Every structure is written in structure tokens, then in C-alpha cells.
UniProtKB/TrEMBL annotation:
Signal peptide (UniProt feature, chain positions): none
Swiss-Prot/TrEMBL keywords: Membrane, Transmembrane, Transmembrane helix
InterPro entries (UniProt xref): IFI6/IFI27-like, IFI6/IFI27-like_sf
GO cellular component: mitochondrial membrane
Entries under Pfam families matching the protein: Ifi-6-16
Membrane-spanning segments: 6-32, 44-62, 68-92
Cellular localisation: Membrane
Chief place of localization: membrane
Species for this entry: Echeneis naucrates (Live sharksucker)
This protein's name: Uncharacterized protein
């Protein structure tokens, strides 16, 4: 596979997979699913912050993305990370 093709495929797959990965981790449109990885993360964040999840924390950002979808900036970041992985993977035939 050509390195540039790997980057394009990686970016597209990462953006397409992001909603499914968020849902599988428990970050859904209806809230954080009980018993999920997201629930465990939320619990740990709440304990660390004295009972609440801090605004802007990773848990808050993931729940926001799970509920409303990725923002333009987040889509760009996910695409960039996927492109980097795809580009690197293209060197391992």
C-alpha cells in the first residue's frame, strides 16, 4: 500500500469508527451507560474531584462527543490521528 493511501484510509476509518467506539465505551446520546468503561471513568473523576466531574475534563468531553457527535475540531483531530496510524501501518506490509 502506498503511504499516502494508508493515511487516507486511516483518517476515514478513524472518523467513521469514532461514534461506534464512543458508544461501545458507554458514552451515548442518552448519557453514560451503567456498568460501562465510561461509568468507571466518571466514577473515578467524581471521586478525584470531590463528587463532581469537572467541566472540560476528558470524561466531560467524551460524553459531549457521545451525546452530540464530534465537533469540527475533534473530527480533525481524530482524522489526523487515524491518518498517522494509517501512514505508519503502510510501512508494514
Amino acid at each position: 500500500m502506498v503511504a499516502g493511501t494508508g493515511a487516507v484510509v486511516g483518517a476515514a476509518c478513524a472518523v467513521a469508527a469514532a461514534p461506534f467506539v464512543l458508544g461501545a465505551a458507554g458514552f451515548t446520546a442518552a448519557g453514560i451507560a451503567a456498568g460501562s468503561l465510561g461509568a468507571k471513568m466518571m466514577s473515578a473523576a467524581a471521586v478525584a474531584n470531590g463528587g463532581g466531574v469537572a467541566a472540560g475534563s476528558i470524561v466531560a468531553a467524551l460524553q459531549s462527543a457521545g451525546a452530540a457527535g464530534l465537533s469540527g475540531a475533534a473530527t480533525g483531530a481524530v482524522a489526523g490521528a487515524g491518518a498517522a496510524v494509517g501512514w505508519l501501518a503502510s510501512f508494514f506490509h
